[in-house]
Amino acid sequence: MTDAPSAPHTPLPTDKELVLKVIPMPADCNANGDIFGGWVMAQVDLAGSVLPARHVQGRMATVAVNEFVFKQPVRVGDILSFYSSVARIGRTSVTVEVEVYAERFATQGRYMKVTEARLTYVAIDASGRPRPIPRPADTADGTAITE
Ligand SMILES: CC(C)(COP(=O)(O)OP(=O)(O)OC[C@H]1O[C@@H](n2cnc3c(N)ncnc32)[C@H](O)[C@@H]1OP(=O)(O)O)[C@@H](O)C(=O)NCCC(=O)NCCS
């Protein structure tokens, strides 16, 4: 299926960072011919971990998918762009918001928001238990970790 050149266009977020781009393949489809929601969730989990990794500085685990909304179907050949921002840094956890935008196969350069999610990651130690997130003063050179 193709979209006309007048396909809807959503402005990209200016308060979030581009953390991943990926193109779904036919093997990622469900029985409807759209992309399987579980595949999208896996990509969001990966994309969501990028900003927390800067703060956690080591092992971490996804503790919660706090919210996940499939706003539009994803199709084979879409170029998906994942934008993320940090919503909260706690003692051991980092919560992020992730938005996914699709450029349809025949309308490159026009973006449509297809998914939005909020996830929480926990810094863990070698035994898999929560550990405190290093503060800027804890880093090697004492500089702040930036977004
Ligand atoms: C992640 C894990 C180590 C956390 O252990 P825990 O004993 O539940 O940890 P705590 O209750 O002390 O909570 C740790 C942090 O997570 C946060 N948290 C826990 N559950 C949460 C939820 N549902 N939503 C948001 N944050 C949550 C807590 O608020 C705390 O954050 P803070 O220290 O910044 O305030 C443990 O739950 C675990 O191993 N889970 C499996 C992880 C995993 O396998 N993920 C992949 C799934 S396929």
Automatic annotation (TrEMBL):
CDD domains: BFIT_BACH. Its EC number is 3.1.2.-. It is an enzyme of class 3 (hydrolase). Keywords: Hydrolase. Residues 14-127 form the HotDog ACOT-type domain. This is Acyl-CoA thioesterase YciA. GO terms for molecular function: hydrolase activity. Belongs to the acyl coenzyme A hydrolase family.
